[in-house]
Amino acid sequence: MSKTVNTRICEVTVYNDQALVTRQGVVQLTGEECELVIAQLPATLVSESIRATGSGTVAVRLLEVRTERTYAAEATNQELARLTQEIGQLEEQKRQMQDQVALFNLQRNFIKGLNNQYLERLTRFQSAEQIDLSQIRELMDFVGQQYTELSSAIAQREKESQHLSNQLQTLRQQLQQLSTLHAQESFNVIVTVEPSAPGEFEIELSYFVPHVSWMPLYDLRLDSTSGKVKLSYLAEVKQNTDEDWLGVTLTLSTAKLGLDPLPLKPFPWYIDIQRPNAPGGKAKTLSESDSLQLRTRPPALPFPGMTLAPESLTEADKEFAQAQLAMAEISKQAGVVTFKVNGGSTILSDGVAHKTTIFHEDYPCCAKYIAIPRLVNLAYLQATIVNPVSGVALLPGQANVFRDNTFVGTTHLEHIAPGQEFQLNLGLDKGLKIDRVLVERQVDKKLVANQRRTTYAYRLIVTNLREQETELILIEQLPVSCYEPIKVRLTSANPEIQVNEFGMLEWSLTLPPLGKQELYYQFTVEHPSELTLVGLDI
Fold first, then answer.
1. pTM above 0.70, yes or no
2. Which of 366, 370, 387, 421 is least surrounded by Cβ atoms within 10 Å, i.e. has the fewest?
3. CA dist., res. 40 & res. 36, Å (int)
């Protein structure tokens, strides 16, 4: 004796590329059942992963679990018959509606014609003295009332007819789509059981399905007042498993399934001599000059990878802000982190990203400004954050960055372990203004040992427009010689500073509220007089 058990998905654990789905269902056993059937499971499930267990008011032995493929052809035929019947009924209603409109049009035309004929006869055969105006008025009132009622009825029937036409169009489209679909494949799971007596039994079925993924997303918001960064850890879940997850307990895991359990096998480590690129040629190597050039290129802005935002919030950011606000329970074991989202989650099988919130956390931060006046006369704000040792790893993912209520842009977080420090770049800030002026450019007319000397000097004025003390790292550059006879020397600096091997001058400044600070530096470039320099752009 077989009995079909109605089950629902109650829990889903999502891994990097698949998910573990758990179903539950309650069945009343008579004690004579030998098979329990769980029908219409998706054809995408991994049949080898199916596991069954259960509990109830009676003892039940689970003897075997097997699957069989089924096709929904019968259900499709029933749907086709239902749609065909509905279309026929609507077409009959529409014909009746059209007949009524035709009848009302005849009646309206008759009333109109009756009015015209009466007035024509009245004016032809009677003199003006014999015309009874009260009769004419009664006739006109009658004709007007009938004409208005019929016109209103015609308009109402035409409106209803149009509504029926729209319904028919929708049903015909459904019928056409259903007629062209192939029979849908699915699985039935049959659990062979041996119940000890009649009673209630709850069966639990679990299986893995592919076509599932999740990725972390972050919302990073600097609160200028508290000096903290609010980190919202979100997840974007996609699935296309042919079954919807409705109101399930959702768990997200960083575990990577399917890895080879055996240790990797080392291969021999060979070394060889350098081979030429072509017969008779030499392999190209990087010259010392080329290497120095690569090391001394002018630095890029200090925040690579940062995509600045427009003034208004984009649609993607609005969607980001509309993510669910459920929080998650976090557990860590053997390097694997799992996030159990509280509350029921709904993830449809549509391949569309569905967002859910894992947790919110306030992280203390140290904010500072970085400026490279040679490139831009404003400063960049950077926050240094430490992921707490007791926290969880932040997986690689996209982050939306906000400063207070202003959207700054998007960036990408790399893997950040607990206890690890990372920087959050918050874009340009108009709270600091930097004026950089070339105050000296002088060529020494005297040649000493055939050497030509040129002196350059810059003055920088940094203005703090903020009403609080501000830390600033200010970076200037000296040119770096790629040719030994060209000498570059820092001759003066205030405040004093040492130049590094790449020609960088880096001052750490503390600016008082609404205060100013002036910096000055001077350097010389010496070279043989017969040489013409390139790259000395001042």
1. no
2. 421
3. 13
Token pair 């009769």: residue: 135
CA distances from 7 to 25, 185, 226 (A): 4, 19, 50
Peptide bond into 373 cis (omega under 30): no
Dihedral angle sign, alpha carbons of residues 49, 50, 56, 62: negative
Rounded to 5°, angle at Cα 137 from 132 and 142: 130
Q: Are residues 454 and 507 in the same domain?
A: yes
CA–CA separation, 120 vs 514, rounded Å?
A: 97
Contact of 413 with 439, CB cutoff 8 Å:
no
Distance in angstroms (rounded) separating the CA atoms of residues 446 and 153: 108
What is the end-to-end Cα distance of the chain in Å, rounded? 93
- DSSP E strand boundaries for 149-280: 185-195, 199-209, 212-223, 228-239, 245-253
Has residue 264 been placed in a domain? no
**pLDDT category of residue 298 using cuts at 50, 70 and 90:** very low
Q: Which two tokens stand for residue 203?
A: 């069966």
CATH number at residue 516: 2.60.40
Burial class of residue 87 in the structure, from the number of CB atoms within 10 Å of its CB (0-12 exposed, 13-18 middle, 19+ buried): middle
Report pLDDT digits (tens) over 7-35.
Answer: 999 999 999 889 999 999 999 988 888 89
> Which residues on neighbouring strands pair with residue 508, listed in sequence order?
473
Strand 185-195: give its sheet, edge to edge: 2-4, 35-42, 185-195, 60-71
Residues 68 and 193 in one domain: yes
pLDDT of residue 323: 38
Q: Is residue 293 part of a domain?
A: no
Same domain, 26 and 161: no
> C-alpha angle 501/507/508, rounded to 5°?
130
Burial (Cβ within 10 Å: 0-12, 13-18, ≥19) of residue 145: exposed
CB 7 within 8 A of CB 27: no
Q: Are residues 200 and 235 in the same domain?
A: no
- Distances in Å between the alpha carbon of 29 and those of 24, 32, 52, 55, 197? 16, 7, 17, 12, 8
Looking at residue 372, the DSSP 8-state letter turns out to be -
